[in-house]
Structure to design on (158 residues):
C-alpha cells in the first residue's frame, strides 16, 4: 500500500512537471500556433512604432524574428527590433503556447498591438521566467515603456 501511494505521488509530480514545460513539436514553415493565419498583409515588426502613434490599441499583422521564448511554458516570446530593442508578445487569454525551438525563426503574428508601461514587478517576473541571473533581476529598478503584442495566432515562415 505504501508503494502504491509513493507511485501515485511520483506520477502526479511527473504530470505537474510535464505540464510546466513549453510544448515540443515542429517549427517548420507553415506551422501555426493559436488561430490559423496567413502571411498576407504582414508588415515588418520595425514599422510598429509608426502605427502606434496614439494611445489606442491596433490590430496588426507583423513579420519578425523570434529572439526569445519563455523557457517555462512557452507563454511569451520576444521579437527583434532595430537598435537592440525587442517587442514583447503574450498569447491571447493564455490560450496557446509555443516551443523554444521557435527562437531564430521568422514568424508572422496576428495580434493586438499597444504601447504599455510594464511595471518593475512584471519585468522581474519575465526575467525570472527567462532564467536570468539574480544580479540581472535585481538590477531591474524602473518600469519600462514598450510595445506589447497580444497574439491571436503565429505562423512560422522560415
Amino acid at each position: 500500500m505504501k508503494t502504491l501511494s509513493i507511485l501515485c505521488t511520483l506520477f502526479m509530480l511527473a504530470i505537474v512537471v510535464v505540464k510546466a514545460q513549453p510544448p515540443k513539436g515542429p517549427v517548420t514553415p507553415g506551422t501555426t500556433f493559436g488561430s490559423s493565419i496567413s502571411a498576407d498583409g504582414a508588415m515588418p515588426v520595425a514599422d510598429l512604432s509608426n502605427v502606434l502613434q496614439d494611445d489606442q490599441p491596433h490590430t496588426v499583422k507583423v513579420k519578425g524574428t523570434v529572439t526569445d521564448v519563455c523557457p517555462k511554458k512557452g507563454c511569451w516570446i520576444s521579437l527583434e527590433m532595430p537598435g537592440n530593442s525587442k517587442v514583447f508578445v503574450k498569447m491571447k487569454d493564455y490560450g496557446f503556447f509555443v516551443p523554444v525551438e521557435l527562437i531564430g525563426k521568422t514568424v508572422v503574428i496576428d495580434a493586438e498591438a499597444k504601447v504599455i508601461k510594464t511595471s518593475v514587478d512584471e519585468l522581474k517576473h519575465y526575467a525570472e521566467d527567462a532564467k536570468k541571473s539574480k544580479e540581472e533581476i535585481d538590477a531591474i529598478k524602473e518600469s519600462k515603456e514598450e510595445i506589447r503584442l497580444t497574439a491571436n495566432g503565429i505562423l512560422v515562415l522560415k
Remarks:
- The mean pLDDT is 82.
- DSSP finds four helices and seven strands in the chain.
